[in-house]
């Protein structure tokens, strides 16, 4: 089972915590520019917020209130793992594009921090999942690492 899962489909953005989900009418522009996505969630009230390019966009409450995220799992970028498929992944669900700087923190970052992170191509590393850790992971399908990323070249 997925502990935390985000995806976008038909201009809707979905947040899943375990088997509970919320969706919002939200699309990250499919243009040639980099966009910054941040999602916060806390389990006391189950409140969450979605930020695109550092700007607050949507919020909600009572999503998986009281739920604990089980540690030591796997992090998957660019697809979703299904139990009904032998290999776990389906090509039709694959993300097409570039992904950079995926980080997870075990606390809710302040809005000001999210805004700052969205404005630069930094070297921050989440305290739970850090972008640096992905380079040691396994890659499936047509996945390539580009270094430095085009994000870093902008600076
Ligand atoms: Ca799938």
Automatic annotation (TrEMBL):
Pfam families membership: Pentaxin (PF00354)
Q: Which domain of life is it from?
A: Eukaryota
Does the keyword RNA-binding belong to this entry?
A: no
Query: What is the designated name of this protein?
Result: Pentraxin family member
This protein's cofactor list reads:
Ca(2+)
State the similarity comment: Belongs to the pentraxin family.
Domain Pentraxin (PTX): from-to ranges: 1-151
Q: Does the keyword Ribonucleoprotein apply?
A: no
Q: Which UniProt keywords apply?
A: Calcium, Disulfide bond, Glycoprotein, Metal-binding
Q: How is the cofactor bound?
A: Binds 2 calcium ions per subunit.
* Assembly: Homopentamer. Pentaxin (or pentraxin) have a discoid arrangement of 5 non-covalently bound subunits.
Principal subcellular localisation of the protein: secreted
Which InterPro entries does the entry mention?
ConA-like_dom_sf (IPR013320), Neuronal_Pentraxin_Related (IPR051360), PTX_dom (IPR001759)
Q: Where in the cell is it found?
A: Secreted
